[in-house]
Description:
By secondary structure, this protein is α+β, with helices and mostly antiparallel strands. The chain has a single domain, classed as P-loop containing nucleotide triphosphate hydrolases (Rossmann fold, 3-Layer(aba) Sandwich), CATH 3.40.50.300. The chain contains four helices and seven strands; from the N terminus they run αβββαβαβαββ. The protein has a three-stranded antiparallel sheet. The mean pLDDT is 87.
Amino acid sequence: xxxxxxxxxxxxxxxxxxxxxxxxxxxxxxxxxxxxxxxxxxxxxxxxxxxxxxxxxxxxxxxxxxxxxxxxxxxxxxxxxxxxxxxxxxxxxxxxxxxxxxxxxxxxxxxxxxxxxxxxxxxxxxxxxxxxxxxxxxxxxxxxxxxxxxxxxxxxxxxxxxxxxxxxxxxxxxxxxxxxxxxxxxxxxxxxxxxxxx
Length: 198
């Protein structure tokens, strides 16, 4: 009887061994599949990163050139703008960097709001130019915080951007310098609560 018990235990062990070997082979096969999938994903990620770098580079050139044109038109060589791409938390983030005479600054800490007005205007134009196919931008008092001495330069900037980018700018403004540089003017007066074109 003892012999039969031993033979039965041995058969049970053989069955478990065979089952374990099959499971091991299945897992080895799946591990190989995972290695192939991982390799494919890493190659895909590498291609996507290269495409993203190319797109970022082209976007940077377009945005930087428009913003730097605005800064140079109004302030000469004092300010430079650049986009920086930073990898964080598994994705790429964009930082807007403003340099004054080569030193990084926060435009929000500058006196008045003219520099921020100009930066915002240029960034809006740049983003609009990248993302839209139509050629009209309407804005309301875009340069109202810009110092009086720079308003004429800002008006020249708008003309330059219009010519270079093929965009028509329509502005609601009270700023004389802006009106003087416009191609057409429409004066609107409110009479008895009704706005009329004069």
